[in-house]
Automatic annotation (TrEMBL), chain A:
Main location, first listed in the record: membrane
Protein's recorded name: ABC transporter permease
Transmembrane segments: 31-50, 55-73, 79-102, 109-127, 157-176, 206-227, 239-268, 280-302
Record InterPro entries: ABC_transp_permease (IPR001851), LivM-like (IPR043428)
Domain of life: Bacteria
The species this protein was found in: Prosthecodimorpha hirschii
Pfam families according to UniProt: BPD_transp_2
GO MF terms held by the record: branched-chain amino acid transmembrane transporter activity
Keywords associated with the record: Cell membrane, Membrane, Transmembrane, Transmembrane helix
GO annotations of cellular component type: plasma membrane
Cellular location(s): Cell membrane
Recorded topology in the membrane: Multi-pass membrane protein
UniProtKB/TrEMBL annotation, chain B:
PANTHER family attached to this UniProt entry: HIGH-AFFINITY BRANCHED-CHAIN AMINO ACID TRANSPORT ATP-BINDING PROTEIN LIVF
Domain of life the protein comes from: Bacteria
Family: Belongs to the ABC transporter superfamily.
Entry's Gene Ontology BP terms: L-amino acid transport
Name listed for the protein in its UniProt record: Leucine/isoleucine/valine transporter ATP-binding subunit
SMART domains: AAA
One of the record's GO molecular function terms: branched-chain amino acid transmembrane transporter activity
TM helices/strands, residue ranges: none
Organism of origin: Prosthecodimorpha hirschii
PROSITE patterns assigned to the protein according to its UniProt record, in alphabetical order: ABC_TRANSPORTER_1, ABC_TRANSPORTER_2
Domain ABC transporter: 2-234
């Protein structure tokens, strides 16, 4: 009973979190947390469910951010439509890159995604006419909710993003209980065996990869219309590493892990702000320490406690 | 039903199969015997599409399948139980059975197939929520076969089903194979336990270093002096 109610309680707390404080600074940090959580959850589909490491995920985030910003500013389409377009653009790139890269696995795949990510970053940086290069794009219009008007405050924005996070988290949860989700795990655990059971390994991986890039694109769009300023730096190596840190430190292959990882990242980023670039060393240490001491992420720490209450052998009556 | 014509398989430069031709007729139990490294598993993997032959043709019910991906072959009803009862240790019994139905033909409903399997292997019904990694060897083999049956096979290939099983389990397994056969499934079984394989089968092929060297009825193979000395130790 408690185990069933726990996710709903957590979702409720998450949804109402900004009501607990008046500080706009804290609201801002919360929005960043949710944006990163959405992004980390999408990367988790690749790292956690498909078992492949992608260094290119920040590029899809950036593609979404740029697509949405440029569309709204140059064609004047409403922001909600641009957000969908952001997902589609990122997904299209994801499809092409995945179609090429997913034929190989393991470290080679990771390196290939790093290459594609770097290409997208470089093109964004130098295509002045479209992206304004390293100067970035500013004065991006905010998200407008019909009947409410433009979202000016971080607190209002939080509710939009948290809705996306909760919806996607639920989608991940539902996926992993479905036959398609089990096919993902079968491919991750033993691809040749999965193939021998009739699972189309390549298509399964492509499906997960494209879904992850679509969500990353939408997260990018949300990011652009929240901060209202974007630069190519959000596709840089630093962001790629940050995303992987969130997923691995939090706990890959779980729904709670990436959300927790995003919280740790955002809080550390703020707490250590005074240290400047030295923060990166702390993050590196965090990743290293986590891989050595809690290889399954922080969420694995409370698992042993839960296992005891969940006997391995649970006979059920026949249907 | 299944026909191989002049199949060559190479791993790099090494030839694993050379000019292998064999056929399995509808309703038969056929066995493929041979020592370690003769190419038995390679032959099965080639039939289920996991390995592409370098030359030759494989026909299933008259149609070529040697260029099809594995999931298309399974859809036609040609299903393999891999050697060493490969399971996913962290998935439950029910999850495995559901996974087996991934590409099942739809002419039989899921629940009917599930009921059939659970009555063939009642222990699986008892252990339905248990993780596969915690099952005994015999139960794992039953689950591996049950998972394959979920794909509604018309042609089932078993790779070393008796490997590492206790004698009582081997008897149960032989009964299960006969039951599956009686229900209309054509069976190709690869075995190192040649006595067991020949007692089940109608016909047999003997594979030696990638070539078919003997082909005969099971009865005659059992009394063949070469088989006796090489595989039965008599």
């Amino acid at each position: 009973m408690i185990r069933k109610a726990l996710p709903f309680a957590a979702a409720l707390v998450l949804a109402l979190l900004p009501l607990g404080t008046q500080s706009t600074y804290l609201h801002h940090v919360m929005v960043l947390w949710m944006l990163y959580a959405l992004l980390a959850l999408s990367l988790n589909v690749i790292i956690g469910y498909l078992g492949e490491l992608s260094f290119g995920h920040a590029a899809f985030f950036g593609l979404g951010a740029y697509a949405s910003a440029i569309l709204t500013m140059q064609t004047g389409v409403p922001v909600w439509l641009a957000l969908i377009a952001a997902g589609l653009v990122a997904g299209l790139f994801g499809f092409v890159i995945g179609y090429v890269s997913l034929r190989i696995v393991g470290p080679q795949f990771a390196i290939l995604t790093l290459g594609f990510g770097s290409i997208i970053y470089t093109v964004t940086n130098y295509w002045d006419d479209l992206t304004r290069g390293p100067m970035g794009i500013n004065n991006i219009p905010p998200v407008t909710v019909p009947g409410v008007g433009p979202l000016g405050e971080a607190r209002d924005y939080y509710f939009v993003v948290v809705a996306c996070v909760l919806a996607f988290a639920y989608a991940c949860h539902a996926l992993m209980r479905s036959r398609t989700g089990r096919a993902f795990l079968a491919v991750r655990e033993n691809a040749p065996l999965a193939a021998s059971l009739g699972i189309d390994v390549f298509r399964t991986k492509l499906l997960g990869f494209v879904a992850a890039t679509v969500v990353a694109g939408i997260a990018g769009g949300l990011y652009a219309h929240y901060l209202r300023v974007i630069t190519p730096e959000l596709m840089s190596l630093q962001y790629m590493a940050a995303l992987i840190i969130m997923v691995v430190v939090g706990g890959r292959g779980t729904v709670v892990g990436p959300i927790l990882g995003a919280l740790i990242y955002v809080v550390l980023l703020e707490v250590l702000r005074a240290f400047g670039p030295l923060r990166l060393i702390v993050f590196a240490a965090l990743l290293t320490g986590s891989v050595i001491f809690v290889p399954h992420g922080l969420v694995s720490l409370w698992r042993p406690w839960r296992r005891r209450a969940d006997p391995a052998i649970r006979p059920e009556p026949a249907p | 039903m299944l026909e191989l014509v002049g199949i060559d398989v190479r791993y790099g430069h090494k030839r694993a199969l050379e000019g292998v031709s064999m056929r399995v007729n509808q309703g038969e139990i056929v066995t493929l015997i041979g020592s370690n490294g003769a190419g038995k598993t390679t032959a099965l993997k080639t039939m289920s599409g996991l390995i592409r032959p370098a030359a030759g043709e494989i026909r299933f019910e008259g149609e070529r399948i040697d260029r099809l991906p594995p999931h298309r072959i399974i859809e036609r009803g040609l299903v393999q139980v891999p050697e060493g009862r490969l399971l996913f240790p962290d998935m439950t019994v029910m999850e495995h059975l559901d996974l087996g139905a991934h590409r099942a033909r739809s002419d039989q409903p899921f629940s009917a197939r599930l009921d059939g399997i659970l009555s063939l292997f009642p222990i699986l019904a008892e252990r339905r929520a248990q993780k596969a990694g915690t099952l005994s060897g015999g139960q794992q083999q039953m689950l591996a076969i049950g998972r394959a049956l979920m794909a509604a096979p018309r042609f089932l290939m078993l790779d070393e089903p008796s490997l590492g099983l206790a004698p009582v389990m081997v008897d149960l397994l032989a009964d299960a194979i006969r039951t599956m056969h009686a229900s209309g499934i054509t069976i190709l079984v690869v075995e190192q336990r040649v006595d067991l394989a020949l007692s089940l089968a109608d016909r047999g092929y003997v594979l030696e270093t990638g070539r078919i060297v003997i082909e005969d009825s099971a009865d005659r193979l059992l009394s063949d002096s070469r088989i006796k000395s090489a595989y039965l130790g008599i």
